[in-house]
Amino acid sequence: MMQTIAAFHFIRPWWLLLLLPALFLWWRERREADTTARWRAVMDGPLLAALSVGGAQKRRIGPEDLLLTAWIIGVVAVAGPTWRLLPSPFAPSARPAMFVLKVTPSMLERDLPPSRLDRAREKMSDLLSARQGAPTGLIAYAGSAHLVLPPTPDTAVLNSMATALSPDIMPRQGDALADALALAQRTLADAGQGGSIVVFADTAPTIAARPSGNAPVVLFATLPPLRAQADASLLAATQALGARLVAPTIDGADVAALAARLATAGAPPPVPGEAPRWMEAGWWLTPLLALLVLLWFRRGWVLA
């Protein structure tokens, strides 16, 4: 939600200047339509109200108010509100991803056979196969975060790197998930191709704020399915990061759903030398504008 708000802007913002004459004409019309305005300077207010037909009643919404509303909606629509990028027809269809793997002694537990760490490696390998050579990078973290491999289409290298990871080779014990996410966001930002982040972890520390970056985050729980959906630390981290929690399944349903999500999540990769194209959303306002125009067919409305 916050990413949508941050990306919201107008494609043609100069059209918004037409709101100024709209407000001026509305004010002028309201002033001229008030037939008692000229008498207020020379007549006492209570007396003027008593001598005026309907003077004590507040004026209802008139044609000029409806015209102002329609004008504002029309100007906003023409200005081109947008918050979503259009994929380029010349851009590569595969979007990058960063795998963030927790490598701690707790990942050696065997409640998710053969172990939590081995099951994470298996799911990573299946996900790489499902992504069909899409650029994928790897970050390992425990008490500190380390870039193992930047995004690459070489799945064999990434699998071999992941297999070599173990808690014994990590320089510091702990749970530096926030540092790992920040490193993943920087890596994707430096590549300039968009992408997503997938975290493979069994628990998560308390995260005060989401690391800066636009890449969406998916938290793949390396726990038995029932525990994964009820783990308090993972649920809290999911909420703090604005992420999506995925529980492992016996079959490949979890990998298939995650691969489909990674194929469309985040901003589409830009094409070198091509300016970003934004999806115009002003046409969504046309039904509302048409509904307001229908009131013009009401008998006597223009002369109200």
TrEMBL record:
Which positions make up the signal peptide? none
The cross-references to Gene3D superfamilies, in alphabetical order and at most eight, read: von Willebrand factor, type A domain
Does the entry feature the keyword Secreted, yes or no?
A: no
Transmembrane region(s): 6-27, 66-86
Q: Which UniProt keywords apply?
A: Membrane, Transmembrane, Transmembrane helix
VWFA domain: residues covered:
98-202
The molecule here is called Transporter
Provide the species name.
Azorhizobium oxalatiphilum
